[in-house]
Amino acid sequence: MSHSSPLGGAISTKAEDFTNVKEDEYRSVEEIECKPWTKAMFRLYGCLLIAYFCGCLNGYDGSLMGGLNAMSSYQDYFHMTKAGSTTGFIFALYNIGSIAAVPFTGPTNDYLGRRAGMFTGAVIIIIGTCLQAPATSRSMFMGGRFILGFGVSFCSVSAPTYVSEISHPKWRGTQTGIYNCMWWGGAIVASWTIYGCSKLSSGYSFRIPIWGQLVSSVIVACGVWFLPESPRWLIARGRPEQARAMLARYHGEGSEMHPIVLLQMNEMLHSIKLDASDKSWWDYRELVNTHSARRRLICVLGMACFGQLSGNSVTGYYLPVMVEQAGITSESTQLLINSLSPMACFVAALLGARMTDKIGRRPLLLYSIVFCSVCFAIITGTSKLGESGNSGAAYTTIVFIFVFGVVFSFGWTPLQSMYIVETLTTSTRAKGTAVGNLASAVASTIIQYASGPAFKDIGYYFYIFFVFWDLFEFVFMYFLFPETKERTLEELDEVFEARNPVTKSLEKCGTNAVLNATGTENRMVA
Questions:
Q1: In whole angstroms, what is the distance from residue 4 CA to residue 236 CA?
Q2: Of 34, 92, 354, 361, which is most buried, counting CB atoms within 10 Å of its CB?
Q3: Which residues, other chains included, contact 71 with Cβ-Cβ below 8 Å and sequence gap of 6+?
Q4: How confident is the model at residue 276, as a pLDDT?
Q5: How far is residue 186's CA from residue 216's CA, in Å, rounded to a whole number?
Q6: 302, 437 Cβ separation under 8 angstroms
Q7: Rounded Cα distance, 106 and 126, in Å
Q8: Coil, strand or helix: which one is 33?
Q9: Residues 6+ apart with CB under 8 A from 96
Q10: Burial label, 501 (beta-carbon count in 10 A; 0-12, 13-18, 19+)
């Protein structure tokens, strides 16, 4: 077996060493016995940990700006208010920077590799932090936020792509899901840093949490070059032997003949094209040129937009404002609640990540979004009662803000990045993720910019929008989002090529799916 290289040559896959495997001996991922606590797996966990720090970056900013917005030292220095168009614009600048970076993120990952993408993003974030933290004017602060968003866009494409491509297929849901759970890890650090700094009398107190953004970015920038490159990127660039060695070391307990290594190599060599659109930085046609591609893109855009418009962006950036409108006006209490919420959400997100491989992606998304709609309905009513001085209603509002965060974190946080990268092919994963990030950033920019004036003008009535929007999301996902659990990334081709991907995805994955992914009847790579 050989494959054409990007330069027109042939890449040998050592066919003389390949052996035939009988069809009834060829097993799916679920049928291959693997253990999660071996030396090879701990090596893999170490690699994943570095990439997880990219997830911390986004979460840190989400909690950082919400907390800063409640600090009087920040408001006094930059002459800001808690709600309004200027506040919304400063929040949105982060996403505007992300949008500006989209044309560069996909090609960087496709040409230079997933590690280079993470490194580029981390370096840009360091530059943005060094501009934002010592800012002496509002414009300087805003410039730093734009650069931060520009850098995070690279990490938001590279890291989830890398994590999904190196994760062990037996536990891909859990390992990939934890990446986005680290959003809450960053949020916890930011919120407690802000809470502690709010006790300082110095006018410099609001700057210390901003400098904290350097921690994750420095770890990523320094640690990324100690990681192996993605095996799928290596095969796409014509380096299958390096991919085989990586899989053997991190998935196969050091053996190139391990069944999980053979399975993945067979499927990748068959599915990954060396002359695909990822070799042309300008070519995005593969995202829309087939029925399968368009169904994948629907999932990408749907997940990207819904992940920002379900109410989570509001509870993240404007939590102190929501608490104030519920009747709790103490700055210290607002910041304490802002610090406690991420801790509960982080635990829920980790549990949800484990459940992705147990109960599946669709059930988590569907059931949780209905519950989120119910939460917003209750929050609307209790906020109205709390405004008139009803302390019981005010505390009920706080409880359900917490409940919303926990439910959304359990059902959605692990899947926001995971589901997007799972539904894309290797050749479109970087560019498709970049397009997803563009849609996510646009949706987030709109909701963040609109939320400031909305809270100022109509207050808690703004929550009614999310009651009905979340129900619309349920209907959309029920009919258009297929299940992706218990299949390798390559085996998902069969799902999206089906006339009805949702129906196909609910069928049990067996040997036929594996054979289709390899494009062979009896001929296997060994």
A1: 11
A2: 361
A3: 194, 197, 198, 205, 206, 331, 335
A4: 64
A5: 9
A6: no
A7: 21
A8: coil
A9: 146, 149, 441, 445
A10: buried
3-state secondary structure of 12: strand
Tokens of 137: 């004017």
Between the alpha carbon of residue 147 and those of residues 58, 125, 223, 450, the distances in Å are 13, 7, 22, 22
pTM over 0.85: no
Spatial separation of the C-alpha atoms in residues 430 and 134, rounded to whole Å = 34
The tokens of 10 are what? Answer: 């042939």
What is the C-alpha to C-alpha distance for residues 432 and 437, in angstroms, rounded to an integer?
A: 9
What pLDDT score was predicted for residue 496? 95
Backbone angles phi, psi at 12, to 5 degrees: -75, 135
Distance CA 316, CA 182 (A): 15
Rg of the chain on CA atoms, in Å: 23
Confidence at residue 233, expressed as pLDDT on a 0 to 100 scale: 95
Distance CA 287, CA 277 (A): 9
Q: How far is CA 381 from CA 247, 264, 387, in A?
A: 54, 52, 10
Q: What are the residue ranges in the chain where pLDDT is below 50?
A: 1-25, 521-526
**The pLDDT of residue 326:** 67
Would you say how long the chain is, in residues?
526
Query: In this structure, what token pair is assigned to residue 87?
Result: 């506040």
- d(Cα 204, Cα 181) in Å, to the nearest integer? 31
- Dig out the tokens for 294 from the structure: 């368009």
CA geometry: angle 494, 499, 504, nearest 5 deg: 50
Residue type, 96: I
Question: What secondary structure does DSSP assign to 250-273, as a single string?
Answer: HTSTT-TT-HHHHHHHHHHHHH--
Question: CA 306, 307, 312 angle in degrees (round to 5)?
Answer: 110
